[in-house]
Amino acid sequence: MTATKIPYNKAADDIGQWNRMPSRFRNLIPSQHFPPEKGRYVLYVNYCCPWAHRTILVHGLKGLEDIVQLVEVDARDSTHGWWFSGKRGPDRDPVYGVKYVKELYLKADPQYNGRITVPLLWDKKHETIVNNESSEIIRIFFEGFDDFLPVDKREISKGAAAFVPTQLRTQIDTLNSWVYDNVNNGVYKAGFASSQAAYDEHVTKLFEALDRLEYHLSEASHYPYLFGEHITEADIRLYTTLIRFDISYYTLFKCNKKMIRSDYPRLHAWLRRLYWNEGPETAGGVFKNTTFFDAIKRGYSSVAAGNGIVPAGPVPHILPL
Ligand SMILES: N[C@@H](CCC(=O)N[C@@H](CS)C(=O)NCC(=O)O)C(=O)O
Q1: Residue 181 within a domain
Q2: Coil, helix or strand for 68?
Q3: 169 and 124 together in one domain
Q4: Which residue, 119, 211, 218, 225, is most buried by CB atoms nearer than 10 A?
Q5: Are residues 149 and 168 in the same domain?
Q6: What pLDDT, in 10s, does the model give residues 87-131?
Q7: Which residue out of 10, 14, 17 has the highest number of ligand 1 atoms within 8 Å of its CB and is therefore the one to mutate?
Q8: pTM for this entry
Q9: Is residue 229 part of a domain?
Q10: Does residue 29 lie in a domain region?
Q11: Whose CA is nearest to atom 10 of ligand 1?
């Protein structure tokens, strides 16, 4: 199976969140083995996971509901990893009836001994994993299925409103890269630091990056979204971390020098603009409709503190606009 060359600088995204192993399945759609096809691919996600949330957002923003099946996997245990509990989402994989996501990884590669992660893009025809790297799955979704979409939803016809407009591609890639290192992954580096020195270093970099983003939003050309009038990939990738910030990372990951709601007025306004937007540019409220605060708090309380006790605050989870 030949992996298609990745069309942009992806080095930073190779880092996983806990043990930093690169994602293993890196095929693209379209490619020789994986042509776009309606009903052929399945996206496995969990709603607590910020990496999966990127793919859920783009799936919704692009209107891929009838093209790529979305399956929720809601529980994870330390021995077998992700499994279908039936509390949220199905109690078995609707495609094969298996109980564990690990069984899908082993079906794709019986020798597989890496991390069992979501999101996961599955091909029902070849019965294998297409890709398990969120940054690539979202780029697949941006354009890969455009032939099945109405003309106004195709990236090629959207011009400046595309998720990665040609004239902004370099700037978006650059911002994504430092946001990934210091914010998306930065919260994990602080939260899972095993020494005081490492924690100090990562938490400092995290808040420097948030200060830099706050300043970025002060420029007229960076309003109302990170690169102006339209929602871009950069907004999507930052949103999934910042919507979890005050309610989970602040407390559970000790990212607590400042809060978005009280210390970053521009980031806070930007975050609420995305969350509360129910217009056509969010496909009728995809940010709000895919953000489940209780699932996020519950998920992080078992990962971070290990005892499953969900913090009471802060409430409300998001303030009104
Ligand atoms: N680089 C991957 C990371 C995905 C990832 O780390 N997902 C987490 C959930 S938030 C996971 O499945 N962790 C399970 C594990 O590491 O065992 C991506 O962005 O898609």
Answers
A1: yes
A2: strand
A3: no
A4: 119
A5: no
A6: 999 999 999 999 999 999 999 999 999 999 999 999 999 999 999
A7: 17
A8: 0.93
A9: yes
A10: no
A11: 49
